[in-house]
Amino acid sequence: MTHYELIGSRGCGSAIVEAALRLAGLDTHLTDLPYLKPGPGRDRLLRLNPLGQVPTLILPGGAVLTESAAMILHLNDVAPHANLAPAPGSFQRVRFFELLVRLTSAVYPTFTYGDEPERWTGPGDAARRLRAATDERRETLWRSIDQQVGAPHVLGDQFSALDLYVAVMTRWRPRRAWFDQHCPRLAAVAEQAAGHRQVRDVLHRHFSGAGD
């Protein structure tokens, strides 16, 4: 295989990696599938990624990456011209790592467990409590991150993949209107990133017709 293959679902975090691949200018085959729906697509995904999650990225040569942060760091190595991460040794690099890990290890799991809480608790009050608790935790995390965001990008003058995460994740609950009111810095970063033609095209492909 001489190209990358990105397995994802529309509206999911695969949009972040798809935008990074577009910015990097790498030859990519996109495989969209309803990743929780039983069938051949799900079966193949599970063979490649035992967690059955998207995005899953297959590299030229067949190696598989299953975590978006690892994908972003890999793409930065192979396509530094895309400016997905600050230069090694810089203080901005430290800030980049800090916020990248917080987005993927703290904010992202609130969706993993809160989007379909019945998968973890079964139906009933426990599921409703888990949904409410993850929603509340997410809003707390976003408010904290908003205090660390610069302008016009997360890292101030320097674009990075953090802007892609924000552009996509602010379209998920609690939705853009909430960010406009409670996290204006993040809302502005998302708007700035969406103004980039390649990012805008990816967002349109994933979220066209979805309410904000």
TrEMBL record:
Enumerate the InterPro entries for this protein.
Glutathione-S-Trfase_C_sf (IPR036282), Glutathione_S-Trfase_N (IPR004045), Thioredoxin-like_sf (IPR036249)
Domain of life here? Answer: Bacteria
Q: Which CDD domains match?
A: GST_N_Beta
Q: What are the entry keywords?
A: Transferase
Q: Where is the GST N-terminal domain?
A: 1-83
Gene Ontology terms, MF aspect: transferase activity
For whether the record's keyword set contains Transferase, the answer is yes
Protein's name in the database: Glutathione S-transferase
Pfam families to which the protein is assigned, alphabetical: GST_N_2
User: Which PROSITE patterns does the record cross-reference, listed alphabetically?
Assistant: GST_NTER
